[in-house]
Design brief:
Structural class: alpha+beta
Largest sheet: 5 strands, antiparallel
Strand order of the largest sheet: 6-5-4-1-7
Order of helices and strands: HHHHHHHHHEEEEHEEE
Number of helices: 10
Number of strands: 7
Radius of gyration: 26 Å
Strand content: 5-15%
Length: 255
């Protein structure tokens, strides 16, 4: 009996090890085979297991979005295509897929154009990043201070040196302050997509609160994380048309 038990434990450990050793690429290939055979539900499940392991890629999210389309879950498909668009290798395919999915929603949300300031903050977070911009501002500020110190010890002297010092310090400090603000926005707010048919947007985090609006599948949302932390199971969001309100967190996928 003891030998049988040890044998069973060994077989279980061997099976677990073999599963653990299965590479993400092998799982991805298996999921693709299932998808080609029409088993979209199981394929999406395997894709999600890869995502959960942290081995993400544009191709993975693109396939997840296509599987979601086949399962008639357009809101979820939009979420995955937005994720795929963030990768350089699948940016164009993700954009094309998004255009298709957005055209399939029966209800379209009014979307206010982003202000130049908002676009600038988004660019900072995506291109130089807040930390990169802060480093640039820090270097410029230090350069200004070095000029100041050199002038104090008569190591450097030229006309209007004080103007250059002031300009460098102000520019560097301004860039550093802008970096802090961009990081603040990045930490506090996140884009999200509604993947359920509809959700009520309320004036307070209470099911009996006054109705502010109704969000439908595929609507773009902006989640305020800091305010949402105050209320479990609720999210404070801004709709594409500029309206604000509370929505239950079920059915909301945050990017």
């Amino acid at each position: 009996m003891k030998k049988l038990l040890l044998c069973s434990v060994w077989l279980l450990l061997s099976f677990t090890a073999s599963v653990a050793q299965q590479s993400p690429q092998a799982i991805f290939d298996e999921a693709n085979t299932l998808f080609e055979n029409g088993d979209h539900t199981e394929a999406l499940s395997l894709y999600r297991s890869i995502e959960k392991s942290g081995n993400v890629s544009g191709a993975l999210y693109l396939n997840m979005g296509i599987a979601a389309v086949q399962l008639d879950s357009l809101g979820l498909a939009k979420f995955y295509f937005l994720k795929a668009k963030a990768f350089n290798t699948t940016a164009s395919q993700g954009e094309t897929a998004l255009d298709y999915v957005n055209s399939q929603f029966s209800r379209q949300s009014a979307v206010l154009p982003k202000l130049p300031w908002d676009r600038a903050v988004k660019w900072i977070n995506e291109v130089p990043t807040a930390s990169g911009l802060f480093l640039i501002g820090f270097i410029i500020t230090i350069a200004g201070l070095i000029l100041l110190y050199l002038s104090w010890f008569n190591r450097l002297s030229f006309q209007n040196i004080s103007s250059y010092v002031i300009a460098l310090v102000i520019a560097g400090s301004g860039l550093a302050g802008l970096a802090f603000y961009a990081d603040y926005v990045n930490q506090r707010y996140n884009a999200a997509v509604l993947i359920t048919n509809s959700q009520r947007v309320l004036q307070a985090p209470n099911a009996d609160a006054t109705l502010e609006s109704i969000a439908y599948e595929g609507y773009d949302l902006t989640v305020d994380h800091w305010k949402s932390e105050e209320q479990p199971d609720w999210l404070y969001v801004r709709l594409g048309n500029g309206q604000y309100g509370w929505i239950q967190d079920s059915g909301v996928k945050i990017l």
